[in-house]
Design brief:
Structural class: alpha+beta
Mean pLDDT: 76
Number of strands: 2
Radius of gyration: 14 Å
Length: 86
């Protein structure tokens, strides 16, 4: 996962999936769940697998989800970096 932004990561995964000749099953955990939900709109994606991921409702924003499920208090070396990534 690249963790640039939801839209950038999803666009990358979507473009990658579109290059595969045949059915694609996307899997994501944590933030990756939101990425595959956005990226999975391509015709050859046949399913999404959420492994402890966030499935956003249509129109729901990742930042709203973080307000409901706050980010855990990780040790400093695993903490948030500038720009909002991990």
């Amino acid at each position: 996962m690249f963790n640039r932004s939801l839209s950038e990561d999803a666009a990358y995964i979507k473009s990658f999936a579109e290059q595969i000749d045949g059915p694609v099953l996307l899997a994501g955990c944590s933030f990756g769940g939101a990425v595959i939900a956005v990226a999975g709109v391509t015709d050859n994606v046949t399913g999404l697998v959420y492994v402890s991921g966030y499935a956003l409702d249509e129109g729901e924003f990742w930042v709203n989800r973080k307000a409901v499920s706050p980010i855990p208090n990780w040790p400093p070396r695993l903490g948030q970096v500038s720009g909002g990534g991990w």
